[in-house]
């Protein structure tokens, strides 16, 4: 039996116990894991140093090394994240709807765990702890598959989580790490129908596309964000500048950062030059359409492919448009349905943009950077869904649950 | 450009108009279609006769011919179904959640259509009208692919629907029928990511498994039901008999019919013989485990494969078990997570069964036949989901929607 098969079956068995675990047991388990993470800090950092050393030998980029690196602060954040989960209400068991039919049948729609979650992710070892915590809180087992570059860190973290679970009534098999981080293990996970209920990929577009293409297990697609800000004719110049700079420079490497700026021609005539200078000063490269470059000569030319790119970097594509309609058509054509914003003082333009633009989150006069579980008040987040089925936008605890119908009768037949 | 490509693109374009269509426009369209169906009754029945004649030439089974056949009554039911949809509330635009954050951002979670639904189904031409009606009501476009045996009937029905739409402000391209009903068209639909948002297969296990295996578009898996009734030690004999007979014989060919009966040994000692006779009288073949046959010699032997079968016929597998746990283990191993029932007077046994059995619908002292949108009070149903993601159990109007977050700011940045 393969490693993946064995672990997914163990997770499936553990998930049955977890599904009926009371909230206190799950919270105690999360606290135990948090405590052990702090106690075992040194051994975790040691394993992480080893990953980093191997990575540097293999010539990984400084950006990747940064994502891979654990520090005392980052470990403390992970432990605190688990403790915060204990303070959130347990979604499992909630009666979502209740009806009594004319024949006397009482029907209750009850929230239940999904079962077994498969996580396939890259680099950041904090996902290991975050995902395990969210899964346990929601009564799900989890099968983790991180990247080879973080293997030692992930293995140590999962060892600690499982050791902690062994101190509680919850089954340690609820958290599994797939051992051989090769592509064959991923392939096997993607076809574990009946043993894994949902696959959540987190990482670059390549990983996510591969998972969507290959998986026969249902997938929660996350994250690719080619986000736009449209600065309308009537936009307040100071506000527009602030939102664009924040959207691009606050954290360029994340999915809710803005990648293309669309500007109404009239606004561009008066304010594009000043905004361009501010962006350059903030270290942003501007790739502009011809009409952008007419108004701001320090922009480099944009190519057609620029409209499709998620730069995840200090680069911004800029296009001047003639109307709200043209802006919305551009977004419809190139957007990834993640986060889209309009800056305008015109209420009717805002209303149309919010209604007609098809995206997980649509903004009026605010930065796209707010598309985030904690900013939305969910308390925790496992990713941002860009699909329409099951979950859309930031996914919190409820998005890791399903439902079942409980029907109570007294002998009814049809 | 292929037929599927052209039609999915036309549907995608139409879906944008539909997404913002007011409830009255959608209801008027449904009424117009219902009226035209009645007016065009003769031409529809003529096309259907042609399908039936070709089918008989090709030697289709009487059961398939019955599913394929349209009558005045069935057409009238289809028209009434559309009219009933107009009386249900429009789910689109509903504000599901609303919060105001400390920074003043107002966040609204709003219900929106899914976009474009792909339906792949077999035989029954009423699905053509039902699916188009449900899609239009929920602001979705739909791409239909029925079976070749019903092609003329489906083509005529879709022609009438599109002709009716042309009399309303809604785009006729909202309803599309894939012309060439070959397997290549299905393959293309299953890979129409970006043009189809969800695929719903309706039909036999073979069709559904093919769709789940091949589709890169998210799938709502429907229907396969290997349903069980467990008659517990303390079950009321009269009630148990009534529920078992109803579950098996009311409509054996549907997914919520019971396929395997599990009986506690002690109940079997006293009542199995009588129940067996009643089932035989009702024309049911009983395939029993050795302990069943010890108690009821007219049962034929069950083979291991019988526990996995969805007979969809007047055949019932029967197994005697020693305990509730053994019954639940059997269901966990062989069930398809559709509908599972316990008959018992023991409240604790009922509580455990309802909590621990993993299925879309779990019943205490009622027939599995109730798993159905209209029985649950949903007013309409597009199928019964046996997956855990997005929708579980009978899927009504809400299950054909997604959501988006509308974020209203006054210049907020992070």
From TrEMBL, chains A, B:
Gene Ontology CC annotations of this record: cytoplasm
Catalytic activity: L-glutamate 5-semialdehyde + phosphate + NADP(+) = L-glutamyl 5-phosphate + NADPH + H(+)
Pathway where it operates: Amino-acid biosynthesis; L-proline biosynthesis; L-glutamate 5-semialdehyde from L-glutamate: step 2/2
Comp. bias intervals (Basic and acidic residues): 1-10
Location in or out of the cell: Cytoplasm
UniProt cross-references to InterPro entries, sorted A to Z: Ald_DH/histidinol_DH (IPR016161), Ald_DH_C (IPR016163), Ald_DH_N (IPR016162), Aldehyde_DH_dom (IPR015590), G-glutamylP_reductase_CS (IPR020593), Glu-5-SA_DH (IPR012134), GPR_dom (IPR000965)
Chain residue ranges for the region called Disordered: 1-29
GO molecular function per UniProt: glutamate-5-semialdehyde dehydrogenase activity; NADP binding
Domain Aldehyde dehydrogenase: 2-279
GO biological process terms on file: L-proline biosynthetic process
EC number: 1.2.1.41
Organism superkingdom: Bacteria
Top-tier EC class: oxidoreductase
Keywords: Amino-acid biosynthesis, Cytoplasm, NADP, Oxidoreductase, Proline biosynthesis
Function: Catalyzes the NADPH-dependent reduction of L-glutamate 5-phosphate into L-glutamate 5-semialdehyde and phosphate. The product spontaneously undergoes cyclization to form 1-pyrroline-5-carboxylate.
UniProt similarity note: Belongs to the gamma-glutamyl phosphate reductase family.
Name the UniProt record assigns to this protein: Gamma-glutamyl phosphate reductase
Organism: Melghirimyces profundicolus
Gene transcribed to yield this protein: proA
């Amino acid at each position: 039996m393969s490693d993946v098969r064995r672990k997914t079956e163990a997770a499936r068995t553990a998930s049955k116990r977890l599904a009926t675990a009371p909230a206190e047991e799950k919270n105690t388990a999360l606290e135990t894991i948090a405590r052990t993470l702090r106690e075992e800090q040194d051994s975790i950092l040691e394993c992480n140093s080893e990953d980093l050393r191997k990575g540097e030998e293999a010539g990984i980029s400084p950006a990747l090394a940064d994502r891979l690196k654990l520090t005392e602060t980052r470990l403390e954040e992970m432990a605190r994240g688990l403790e915060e989960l204990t303070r959130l209400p347990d979604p499992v068991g909630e009666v979502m709807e209740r009806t009594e039919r004319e024949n006397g049948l009482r029907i209750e729609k009850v929230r239940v765990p999904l079962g077994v979650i498969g996580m396939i992710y890259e680099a950041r070892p904090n996902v290991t702890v975050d995902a395990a915590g969210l899964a346990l809180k929601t009564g799900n087992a989890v099968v983790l598959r991180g990247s080879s570059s973080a293997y030692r860190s992930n293995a140590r973290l999962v060892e600690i989580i499982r050791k902690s679970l062994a101190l509680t009534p919850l089954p340690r098999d609820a958290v599994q790490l797939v051992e051989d981080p090769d592509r064959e293990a991923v392939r096997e996970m993607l076809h574990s129908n009946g043993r894994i209920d949902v696959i959540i990929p987190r990482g670059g577009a390549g990983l996510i596309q591969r998972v969507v293409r290959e998986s026969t297990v249902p997938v929660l697609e996350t994250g690719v964000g080619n986000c736009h800000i449209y600065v309308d004719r009537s936009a307040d110049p100071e506000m527009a500048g602030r939102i664009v700079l924040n959207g691009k420079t606050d954290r360029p490497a994340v999915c809710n950062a803005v990648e293309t700026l669309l500007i109404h021609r009239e606004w561009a005539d008066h304010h594009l030059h000043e905004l361009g200078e501010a962006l350059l000063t903030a270290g942003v490269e501007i790739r502009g359409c011809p009409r952008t470059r007419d108004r701001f000569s320090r922009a480099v030319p944009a190519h057609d492919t620029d409209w499709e790119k998620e730069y995840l970097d200090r680069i911004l594509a800029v296009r001047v448009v003639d109307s709200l309609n043209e802006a919305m058509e551009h977004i419809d054509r190139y957007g990834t349905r993640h986060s889209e914003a309009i800056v305008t003082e015109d209420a009717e333009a805002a209303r149309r943009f919010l209604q007609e633009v098809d995206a997980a989150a649509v903004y009026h006069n605010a930065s796209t950077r707010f598309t985030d579980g904690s900013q939305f008040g969910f308390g925790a987040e496992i990713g941002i869904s860009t699909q329409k089925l099951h979950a859309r936008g930031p996914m919190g605890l409820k998005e890791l649950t399903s439902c079942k119908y409980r029907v109570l009768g007294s002998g009814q037949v049809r």
